[in-house]
Write a structure and sequence with these properties.
By secondary structure, the chain is an alpha+beta fold. Helix content is about 20%, strand content about 35%. A hairpin with a 5-residue loop joins strand 4 and strand 5.
Length: about 220
């Protein structure tokens, strides 16, 4: 995936005009790298972000310079218009490991849900990984078809990755499981209205009323 950007002369100036011109202000930085202020065509960046997310290497060309490998590190959105208003690119070295989060993609269907009426529970949506940029997976698959019963669960150790990719999380951490459906008795219990015990509250109110009435009786 490739993107082309232009250099911005000064940081923090002319940003609104850039956005009106359908450009996304951005910055490129990395280890031992001087940050550069850039701008990209909005449509191109939007398509790249949709496909690459924040965990796929992008070849970024800035002006006439040599293309560099980057990750989209962060984006800012306009809360009113739901449009990109800024982006951060992290320039990577292909010979150095990086640490980032990779999203989980849930595939298949659990028999415990389909045939037994259970409810699927997902504990996490992404996992931290450590690897060389060239080995970075775009996503990690979680096969729900292995959840045959309510006793089954999928843990971090069940995720299949290359031996060049390290998942930096507890291997016993549960990612997905299925819980049984509620029984009729449990549903009836939820429908029962719980009446609060207001005895103490009424006592406080009564005492306050008596105290307020006492001066009047003396008169």
């Amino acid at each position: 995936m490739k993107l082309t950007a232009v250099l911005r002369a000064e940081a923090g100036k002319g940003l609104e005009q850039l956005r009106k011109d359908d450009m996304v202000p951005a910055v490129v930085y990395g280890r031992k790298i001087e940050p550069r202020n850039i701008a990209l065509p909005y449509l191109e960046f939007s398509k790249a972000y949709k496909q690459a997310g924040e965990n796929t290497i992008i070849e970024l060309s800035v002006g006439e310079g040599k293309p560099v490998n980057v990750l989209i590190h962060a984006v800012q959105m306009s809360p009113l218009r739901n449009r990109f208003i800024h982006a951060d690119f992290f320039q990577v070295r292909m010979d150095e490991e990086i640490e980032t989060h990779v999203p989980l993609v849930f595939i298949g269907e659990s028999p415990a849900v389909r045939e037994m009426g259970g409810m699927l529970m997902k504990s996490i949506e992404e996992l931290p990984v450590k690897t060389l940029p060239s080995d970075l997976p775009h996503s990690l698959e979680v096969d729900l078809s292995t959840l045959l019963t309510f006793e089954d669960h999928i843990t971090v150790s069940d995720i299949k990755v290359s031996d060049r990719v390290k998942i930096d999380a507890d291997p016993n951490m549960v990612i997905a499981s299925v819980i049984p459906p509620r029984t009729e008795a449990e549903m009836e219990t939820l429908d029962v209205k719980v009446e609060a015990d207001v005895t103490k509250v009424e006592g406080v109110v009564k005492e306050a009323s008596d105290a307020a009435a006492a001066p009047a009786e003396k008169k």
